[in-house]
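Reminder to self: tokens first, then the designed residues, so the page reads top to bottom the way the pipeline ran.
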């Protein structure tokens, strides 16, 4: 899902920061991880974004955007809903361009940047180059304690089901091997009877 969001944010930021370069190559799409990844209620927060996979030794702008439209709900909104919300962002209309931060990307292609921001519904972080050569982005949802607990329980259940599925596959393969050995034994014993 992160890769999908990153690609979507790349499309959004490329349209914002393109300097009119026709025929430009596809942008480098980095990965952005916010800390905290969600907040318990709308309000002012210090969010630290860690970004990797960018062009080494380059400069990007990092800003906060609010997607218009229906409120995204963690654990309920689909990847398509999130993608549609990000695609509806008009950078000049929905992003806090006045408070964008210029960030230097290190020689490994990453950076960590803290920002004091107001988080509300549909808040997205994005970073990109003015020439459209690179982009990274992420959604920072408002998740109350009850919803956070429900999401954690659903993730734990999904992880448990994944482990159960793996064990079932192993048992099925082991059972199939035993059946094949049994069939070979029966075939072998019948063959010796006919001789």
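Designed residues (195 positions):
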């Amino acid at each position: 899902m992160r890769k999908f969001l990153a690609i979507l944010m790349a499309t959004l930021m490329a349209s914002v920061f393109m300097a009119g370069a026709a025929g430009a190559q596809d942008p480098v799409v980095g990965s952005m991880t916010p800390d905290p990844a969600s907040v318990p209620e709308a309000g002012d927060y210090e969010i630290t974004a860690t970004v990797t996979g960018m062009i080494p030794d380059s400069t990007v702008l990092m800003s906060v955007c609010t997607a218009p439209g229906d409120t995204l709900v963690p654990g309920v909104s689909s990847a398509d809903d999130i993608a549609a919300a990000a695609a509806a962002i008009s950078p000049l209309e929905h992003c806090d361009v006045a408070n964008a931060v210029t960030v230097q990307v290190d020689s490994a292609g990453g950076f960590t940047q803290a920002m004091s921001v107001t988080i509300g519904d549909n808040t997205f972080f994005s970073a990109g180059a003015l020439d459209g050569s690179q982009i990274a982005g992420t959604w920072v949802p408002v998740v109350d304690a009850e919803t956070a607990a429900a999401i954690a329980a659903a993730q734990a259940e999904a992880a448990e089901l994944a482990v159960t599925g793996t064990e079932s596959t192993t048992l099925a393969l082991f059972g199939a091997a035993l059946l094949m050995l049994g069939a070979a034994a029966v075939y072998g014993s019948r063959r010796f009877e006919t001789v």
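Helices lie at 2-17, 79-87, 91-94, 145-194.
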